[in-house]
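Feature request disguised as a bug report, sorry. It would help if multi-protein outputs had a clear separator. Right now it looks like this:
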Amino acid sequence: GERRGYWKHYAPHKWYKQAKIHGKLNNHRAVLLLDTGAEVSILDTTFAREVGCLIDTEITKECVGIRDETYYMVGRTRVKITLAGNLVYYMHLWVGDLVGQHAILGMNFMVPAGVRIDTADGTACLPDEVHIQMIGRRPLYGTRMNPVNVKAPVRLEPGDTEVLLRPDRNAPFLWVARAESWVTTFVKGRIGRKTYLRVTNIGDAAITLDAHETLGWWTPSDGQPRSRGFVRLGSPRYQQWQNVAYGATRRKTGSQPSSTGR
């Protein structure tokens, strides 16, 4: 959000870039401003009366940073906040006059609720990686990005397995992942145009790949995976991964005892 007019003063052409999302307050649709520079959360006075909030006017508070002069809050009220349709929070908010949004949710809400702002993607990130698109922002990661996931749990002895890939013409670039105990490499089939991801167990013990484990991402030329730990085919890091996978495979082959005749 905008803190003390920072964007408006230092970058006039960007001052409108505020982290606003849609949510519900007491089951009524509302515009919420996520302000990382605010220590308190404030509910608009008019909106509070419209949704039937009981305002405790015996408690008032003075606040600085919203306007040039001291800002007075007329009371407090308890509000039900609903995000992403099913995440519900109950919290006491200060009540005051606001313009442009129905409520300001400051750090006293965002930190306990586990909300963070992804400015690159233009989303508010909630627990369990639930994302809410900010108002006025287009998604950085479009529908042309397709993950490559494990369909069912797979147990891997020190060796490798293959997962069938489906080439996506709209997303021609492939990114692959690795973990501490396994590494993913790209393999072309011997017959036809089928391509595979080979997952190699580079450890000394058996491992299990859980269902829906993401092994790679198909992306457009200007896209990149949302999560960290992915590298693009042909990159120097990917070549290092190929060497690691090859070394693990050779180690397994060399450790097998040879048969001897009697």
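(second protein starts here, but nothing in the output says so)
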Amino acid sequence: MTKSIPQARRAGKRPPPTSSAKPASSILPNTLHLAAHRLASALGVPFSVALVHAEAAGLGREVQ
């Protein structure tokens, strides 16, 4: 079986360690979404409703 040219170039090579890493902004948890998930589970309301109320209440804007 012959390999195509792109496969032959990649054979035995490892991708750079950062090639599949997520951007730094997506690694940090979104505090607004965390607060909304907690509200939704505690109150039994849909996440979208909890998200709107959490945003209106100013949750997730806390400075660390």
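Even a blank line would do. Unrelated, but nice: The first helix runs from residue 5 to 10.
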